[in-house]
Amino acid sequence: MTTGQVFIAALFAVALGLFGVVEIVARREGSKVPTLGEVCGVVMRYRVGPLPVGRIAMFGFWWWLGWHFLAR
Q1: Which residues of 17-53 are buried (b: 16+ CB within 10 A; e: fewer)?
Q2: Which of 3, 26, 43, 56 could form a disulfide linkage to 35, CB 3.0–4.6 angstroms apart?
């Protein structure tokens, strides 16, 4: 592995850790921080007229994520 690949892998690990910390903080009693599920729910409900823009964006994000990590 090159130094750049190690650096990118470390950044992904840090981002995953931060997601975990935020989720733990959000699930505490009386927390004002929304959980990841609540954020996804708000995004999924976003519409512009009859077009469900939030659902299209979420689908595109999952498509990109799957292609990026699983298509090799």
Answers
A1: eeeeeeeeebeeeeeeeeeeeeeeeeeeeeeeeeeee
A2: 26
